[in-house]
Each structure stands twice: as C-alpha cells, then as structure tokens.
C-alpha cells in the first residue's frame, strides 16, 4: 500500500461513512420511519423486564395472594401473561417493520451508489485508465458496495437498536440500583480505552485487506480478457500461480484483520460481562438482605442481559462500521476523481453540417500524461476541407492515432488549437463534438448482445430497416443472415463467435449507421481478407462521399485514392501530397511504398 493510502487508512474512522449522506438524503422520510420503528422495537424490548417484574411480584409471590385464593392468583397470572404477550406482539411487528425499512434502504442506497460510481467512471478520460486498473474499479463496484450494503441495510440498524436498548437498560439499572450501577458504569468507561486501540488496528487492516482484494480482481480481469494469448503461450499455470499469490496475500491480511477484530469483540464481551456480573452479584445480596423484591431482581437480571448483549453486538457492529468506512472511503475516492476532459460551462451549440465538416489543427504540441518528456505531436498543423479525404501514414509511434484521440477530445493538447468547422472543440459540449464523429477502430469492439443491437449502438433510435441498410452497405448483411438466429444472434463476449473480418464489418456498419459528417478510419480493413477488403473498401468509398474522412493506414494500397496523404515521423509532418507526387519525391513515403509494393 502506498504511503498516501497508509495515511488515509490511519485517518479513517466511522466518520468516513459521512460520504454516504448525499445518497441517504433523498430517502429522509423512509429513514425517519425506520428510526421510529427501531425506537419502538427497542422500547418494546425494554418493557419486557417491567412486565416480567409484574408477573413475579404481582402474580406469583404477592402477599395479597399468599392466603390461597387460587382463582384470583390464576386471573392475575393470566393478566400478566397477556401483558407479556402484548409486549412480544409489539416487538415482533415493530422489528419486522424496522427490518423491511432498513433492508430496503440498504438495497436502494447501494444501487444508487453503484450507479453513481459506474456513471462517474464512464466519464473519465483515458488518462484515468492509464493509472487505474479495470479490475480495481470492478472490485470497488462489487466488494466495496456490498460492504456498504451490509452496514446500511443491517449493521447500522442493529447498532442503533442495541445502542438504544443498551442505553435504556443502563438508565433503568441506574434508576433502580443507583449506587451499584454507577460503579459498574465507571468500570465500563475503562473498557472504552483499550477498545479504541483495537479499533485503530482494525481500521488499518480493513483498508489493507480491501486493497489486496482489489489487486486480485485486477489480475483476474486482465488475464480473462487475454485468454487466447495466455493459452497460446501455455501460461495458464503461471497466471494461476500469480493469482494464487495475490489471493494468499489478501488472505493473510484478512486473517490479521479478523484476529484483531476477534480480540476487540472478545475483550468487549468479557470486560462488560465481568462488570455487569458484579452488578448482578450485588443485586442478589440486596434480595437476601430484603432491600429489593424477587421481581425487582428478575427485572435487573433481564436488563443486565440486555445491556451485556447490546455491548457485545455493538462491538461487532463497530468492526462492520470500520470495514464499511474503508469501503466508503475507496468509493468516495473514485467519485472525487475529476476528469481533466469535460464540457465547458457554457458550450457553443453547433449544428452538424449535412455533409462534411472542416478540420483544423494549428501548431499542436502534445505529450501523453504518462510520458511527459516524449512528444507525441510536435507543432503539428493540418487543415482538411469539407468532404476531403486525408490519409495519415508513417511508422508505429509516429503520432497517427494521437491525432484521432485529440480530435475526439480524449486528451487536450498542451499547446495549439483544434477546430471543427469554425469552432474550437474545447468550446463544444463533449456530446455535441463526439456526435459529429464516427470512428472505425483497428480492433473492432463487439458487445455481448445481438448483431442487431451491436450495429444499432451507432444510432440507438434507428429502425430495424436502417440497421439492415447499414449492414448491407458494409457487406455484413449476408453473413449476419447466415447466423443461427440472423440479426438476433447473440455474438458472445467481445464477439468470440465471429471472425476478425466479420467483427470489423459490423464495426463499419455501426459507424455508417451513425452517419457523421467526420469519419475516422483507423486501419479499418486491416483484419479483412483480400475479397472482403475489396467489398468493404467499395462500401467505405461510398460512405466517404460528401463526408470529411481521416484515414490511418499501414497498408498503403488502401490510401492511394486519398485526396492527400500526410507522412508523420515522431510527431512531425515530414511529407504530404498525393500518392503519385510522394512516390516521385523519393522520400519516406516512397521507401514505404517500395517495401510494400515491390518487396
């Protein structure tokens, strides 16, 4: 755990749960109702010893009944038992209502928290995911929110209920046996000091345990997303061992946390029981001396049991609160993360043009946050006219994909400006900007749903007919209809039931359905065989008409018909022109072309 995390763990207290207040506030009415039922259930429990005292003194050993009037005694007993039953009915009803209300709150607040964290993470820029593993985010969405649900839906309610009962029992004991119980109360105060020491240790270990579980989740998520690579390198055993080591570390920390928490609970139970048994012993001496009645002693015994059990439950609940405090803190860290990429406070509304849009880069300098000393683009300038097709070529790492990422505002350049039409993209709302851009990535992303919904992802309101038309234009209609259920066929996680070329054609159909004025093609035909490439290239040429298009390609055959070709090297434009003029210049492009066409 980092030093920053350690400091946070040291400072972590149940007050960290205050981060949940914004999620609890909308349900103030239900919380108030739950508190009312909680107090009524606690009061019902506290009335039980009073009714028991009445039963013993008034129905069993009352001097008035000692003369042998069995009928009167039976009626008195019946009356007292009815009182006890009425208390039990009230306790059952109020407890059931309390349980329902707090369980509902736990489920609702957890769902709201999970939704808020997920929606917040989705809006983070790629910079966030350069330093945060997906598995760690998933751990916080599952493990941490489950801990919060346990507290809100159970532990917190139990803690409050037992706090009310314990306080009530202590008040009644002090009221009925003031001298003895004040001594016991003084002893109980001494219990708090060592409890605080154990509590701090549990806090630190709770945070560390949750961090180690997140590490295991991160490893699992990474490996499961790369199963073909893992198996092709026969690395199953190594990856299983790596995960085993991670879970073993998590287990060791969890055991240390459990040991500390067990000592905390055991200490509280033993210490409070010893103090309260002293009070009970003093009570029996008082009965023998005739200072209190047998019913009074019975009442005291029950209150002692209520007080002891309340302290025991509070000890366990405190441990749950500490774990949930750590979970809440981790979730609040995610919610407090602010993306450097966001829409301006007063965005410029720009209507998308009916045809292509102009694009302009002006003296753009950019480096990725994780590589501050390495320039991805160096004084890069580019002007694309509406409807023009411009290809970006060059060696790997030249900055081609960076151009696309800056256009989509996944990052902002350190210097220079980027305009879409006549509007700086920083002045536009992110939704408006990205709505005008369609992209076909090199690695086609297929979601775990049907072929129809995968294509419709580009335009959620599209009709089935529009989806079919886009698939036909991308030469995907024929193979989709041959699938077992046609367009309704489930494609599997990441499209595992499709070939690479089929996945790419669905991604192209998705972009064509969106019908944006600016189209970005990142090696859009790289996964296709020769026949499919010819078909899709024809479809792309049709889609590029009356639309501004930027194309990234390593296979120069796909960009020969571009209006202009830019050759990038180390973030700098070193050549530009048409295929013919660049070949004639005998420079970088000519060498690349010679290797591909003549090699």
Give the SSE layout:
Layout (H helix, E strand, L loop, with lengths): L2 H9 L9 H4 L3 H33 L9 H53 L3 H6 L2 H43 L1 H47 L2 H6 L3 H53 L5 H43 L22 E8 L10 E8 L4 E5 L6 H8 L7 E6 L2 E2 L5 H6 L1 E4 L10 H6 L7 H10 L3 H5 L18 H15 L3 E5 L7 H14 L4 E5 L11 E6 L2 E6 L1 H7 L2 H11 L1
Parallel strand pairs: 3-8, 3-9, 6-7, 7-8
Antiparallel strand pairs: 1-2, 1-4, 4-5, 9-10
Helix pairs in contact: 3-4, 3-6, 3-10, 4-6, 6-7, 6-10, 7-9, 7-10, 9-10, 14-16, 16-17, 18-19
What does this structure look like?
There is one protein chain. The protein is built from 19 helices and 10 strands. Residues 1-12 have low confidence and may be disordered. With 599 residues, it is α/β, with parallel strands linked by helices. The chain is 63% helix and 9% strand. The relative contact order is 0.08. It has helices at 3-11, 21-24, 28-60, 70-122, 126-131, 134-176, 178-224, 227-232, 236-288, 294-336, 400-407, 430-435, 451-456, 464-473, 477-481, 500-514, 530-543, 579-585, 588-598, and strands at residues 359-366, 377-384, 389-393, 415-420, 423-424, 437-440, 518-522, 548-552, 564-569, 572-577. It folds into 2 domains: 16-336, ABC transporter type 1, transmembrane domain (ABC transporter transmembrane region fold), CATH 1.20.1560.10; 359-436 and 516-598, 3-Layer(aba) Sandwich (Rossmann fold). It is elongated. Strands 6-7-8-3-9-10 form a 6-stranded mixed β-sheet, sandwiched between helices. It has a 4-stranded antiparallel β-sheet with strand order 2-1-4-5, with helices on one face. It starts with a helix and ends with a helix.
């Amino acid at each position: 755990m980092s030093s920053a995390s350690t400091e946070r763990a040291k400072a972590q207290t149940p007050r960290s749960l205050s981060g949940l207040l914004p999620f609890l506030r909308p349900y103030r009415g239900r919380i108030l109702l739950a508190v009312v039922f909680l107090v009524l259930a606690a009061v019902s429990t506290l009335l039980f010893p009073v009714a028991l005292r009445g039963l013993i003194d008034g129905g069993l050993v009352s001097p008035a009944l000692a003369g042998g009037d069995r009928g009167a005694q039976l009626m008195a007993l019946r009356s007292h038992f009815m009182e006890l039953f009425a208390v039990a009915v009230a306790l059952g009803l109020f407890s059931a209502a309390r349980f329902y209300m707090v369980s509902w709150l736990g489920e609702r607040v957890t769902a709201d928290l999970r939704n808020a964290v997920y929606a917040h993470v989705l809006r983070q820029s790629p910079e966030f995911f350069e330093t945060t593993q997906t598995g760690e985010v998933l751990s916080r969405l599952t493990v941490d929110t489950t801990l919060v649900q346990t507290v809100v839906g159970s532990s917190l309610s139990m803690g409050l209920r037992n706090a009310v009962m314990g306080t009530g029992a202590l008040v009644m004991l002090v009221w009925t046996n003031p001298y003895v119980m004040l001594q016991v109360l003084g002893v109980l105060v001494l219990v708090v000091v060592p409890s605080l020491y154990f509590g701090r240790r549990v806090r630190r270990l709770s945070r560390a345990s949750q961090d180690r579980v997140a590490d295991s989740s991160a490893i699992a998520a990474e490996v499961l997303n790369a199963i073909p690579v893992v198996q092709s390198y026969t690395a199953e055993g190594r990856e299983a061992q790596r995960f085993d080591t991670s879970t073993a570390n998590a287990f060791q920390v969890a055991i240390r946390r459990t040991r500390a928490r067990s000592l905390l609970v055991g200490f509280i139970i033993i210490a409070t029981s010893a103090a309260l048994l002293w009070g009970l012993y003093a009570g029996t001496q008082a009965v023998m001396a005739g200072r209190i009645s047998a019913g009074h002693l019975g009442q005291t015994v029950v209150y002692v049991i209520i007080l002891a059990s309340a302290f025991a439950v509070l000890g366990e609940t405190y441990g749950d609160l500490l774990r949930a405090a750590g979970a809440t803190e981790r979730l609040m860290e995610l919610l407090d993360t602010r993306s450097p990429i966001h829409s301006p406070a007063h965005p410029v509304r720009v209507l998308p043009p009916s045809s292509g849009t102009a694009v302009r880069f002006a003296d753009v300098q950019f480096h990725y946050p994780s590589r501050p000393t390495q320039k991805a683009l160096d004084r890069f300038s580019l002007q694309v006219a509406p409807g023009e097709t411009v290809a970006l070529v060059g060696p790997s790492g030249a900055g081609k994909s960076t151009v696309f990422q800056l256009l989509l505002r996944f990052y902002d350049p350190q210097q220079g400006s980027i305009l879409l039409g006549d509007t700086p993209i920083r002045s536009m709302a992110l939704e408006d900007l990205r709505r005008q851009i369609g992209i076909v990535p090199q690695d086609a992303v297929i979601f775990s749903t049907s072929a129809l919904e995968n294509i419709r992802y580009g335009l959620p309101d599209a009709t089935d007919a529009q989806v079919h038309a886009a698939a036909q234009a991308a030469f995907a209609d024929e193979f989709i209809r041959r699938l077992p259920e046609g367009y309704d066929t489930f494609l599997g996680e990441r499209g595992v039931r499709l070939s690479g070329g089929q996945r790419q054609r669905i991604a192209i159909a998705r972009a064509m359905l969106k019908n944006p004025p600016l189209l970005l093609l990142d090696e859009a035909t790289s996964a296709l065989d020769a026949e499919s490439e010819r078909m899709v290239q024809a479809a792309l040429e049709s889609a590029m008409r009356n639309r501004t298009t930027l194309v990234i390609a390593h296979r120069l055959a796909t960009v020969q018909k571009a209006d202009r070709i830019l050759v990038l090297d180390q973030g700098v434009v070193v050549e530009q022109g048409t295929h013919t003029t660049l070949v004639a210049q005998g420079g970088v492009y000519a060498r690349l072309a010679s290797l591909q066409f003549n090699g």
